[in-house]
């Protein structure tokens, strides 16, 4: 881990260094602040956001930043490079003693000739597990995960607090079991790790929830899209990006088809 990242790091390396360092800061706050619950979550959000903003201003001063915990400066819409960060993904889990299913997200969106721009780098840190995943070409090593041991059935991870209304339809289509995991980053990385086969979500997310997980998942060869199969677009004026599929590519058609005919309301 690079404790004091330097400007000469590549964007992927910098995303990993910042996510890892912010995660270590969050572990320190969790251990030493004497806070718990919502107060701990709020303190962690502030400390991590301050750190990421300060480091990006120092290391990439010409880039814009979109963060869940800072006011949205719409000048980013005219910027060629925008960092999209979630200082604590899974604040409720972070504030709960013993929970490890929370994350730090750091992603970079950039324009490219002939395109409207897209994600070019990203990292997801799972600090309580001591793991950081990046959008590089390195193989993913086996690791102790967040879900119970696998059975011989496919596995779909969903939100424990807000499972999508179509979750059962997806599980039926794949003959899969549903497993609840906390943050979006933790769920997406369960698929990256092979601990699960798909992650589906149906509402209540914003760009910072999925940007870094999608950058990592795509780099590892996974399918990532909206629930209707359309592309995930970032650095938009409206940052609401409510739904998501991350899965093994061979499962994408069956998942999209199952969602298309599933109920849209509980």
SSE arrangement:
Blueprint: H1 11-32, H2 37-59, E1 64-67, E2 81-89, H3 91-94, E3 103-110, E4 118-126, E5 131-134, E6 155-159, H4 167-174, E7 177-181, H5 184-192, E8 198-202, H6 207-219, E9 223-225, E10 243-247, H7 252-261
Parallel strand pairs: 1-2, 6-7, 6-8
Antiparallel strand pairs: 2-3, 3-4, 4-5, 8-10, 9-10
Helix pairs in contact: 1-2, 4-7, 5-6
Walkthrough of the structure:
The chain has helices at residues 11-32, 37-59, 91-94, 167-174, 184-192, 207-219, 252-261, and strands at residues 64-67, 81-89, 103-110, 118-126, 131-134, 155-159, 177-181, 198-202, 223-225, 243-247. It is an alpha/beta fold. The chain folds into 2 domains: 11-134, Fructose-1,6-Bisphosphatase, subunit A, domain 1 (Fructose-1,6-Bisphosphatase, Chain A, domain 1), CATH 3.30.540; 155-261, D-Maltodextrin-Binding Protein, domain 2, CATH 3.40.190. The protein has a 5-stranded mixed β-sheet, with helices on both faces. Strand 4 (118-126) and strand 5 (131-134) form a beta hairpin. Helix 1 (11-32) packs antiparallel against helix 2, helix 4 (167-174) crosses helix 7 and helix 5 (184-192) runs parallel beside helix 6. The chain is globular and about 50 Å long. 48% of the residues are buried. The model has no long low-confidence stretch (mean pLDDT 93).
């Amino acid at each position: 881990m690079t404790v004091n990242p330097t400007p000469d790091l590549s964007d992927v390396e910098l995303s990993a260094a910042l996510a890892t360092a912010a995660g270590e800061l969050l572990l320190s706050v969790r251990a030493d602040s004497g806070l718990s619950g919502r107060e701990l979550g709020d303190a962690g959000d502030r400390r991590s956001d301050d750190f990421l903003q300060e480091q990006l201003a120092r290391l990439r001063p010409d880039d814009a930043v979109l963060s869940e915990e800072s006011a949205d400066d719409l000048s980013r819409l005219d910027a060629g490079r925008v960092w999209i960060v979630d200082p604590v993904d899974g604040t409720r889990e972070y504030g709960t003693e013993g929970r490890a299913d929370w994350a730090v997200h750091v992603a970079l969106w950039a324009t490219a000739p002939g395109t409207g721009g897209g994600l070019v780098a990203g990292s997801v840190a799972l600090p309580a597990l001591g793991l950081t995943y990046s959008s590089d070409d390195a193989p993913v090593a086996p690791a102790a995960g967040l879900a119970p041991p696998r059975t011989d059935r496919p596995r779909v991870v969903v939100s424990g607090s807000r499972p999508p209304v179509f979750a059962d339809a997806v599980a039926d289509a794949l003959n899969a079991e549903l497993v609840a995991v906390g943050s979006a980053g933790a769920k997406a990385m369960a698929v990256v790790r092979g601990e699960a086969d798909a992650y589906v979500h149906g509402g209540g997310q914003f760009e910072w929830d999925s940007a870094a997980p999608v950058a990592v998942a795509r780099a590892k060869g996974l399918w990532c899209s909206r629930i209707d199969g359309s592309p995930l677009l970032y650095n938009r004026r409206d940052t609401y990006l409510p739904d998501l599929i991350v899965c093994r590519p061979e499962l994408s058609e069956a998942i999209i088809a199952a969602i298309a005919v599933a109920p849209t309301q509980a």
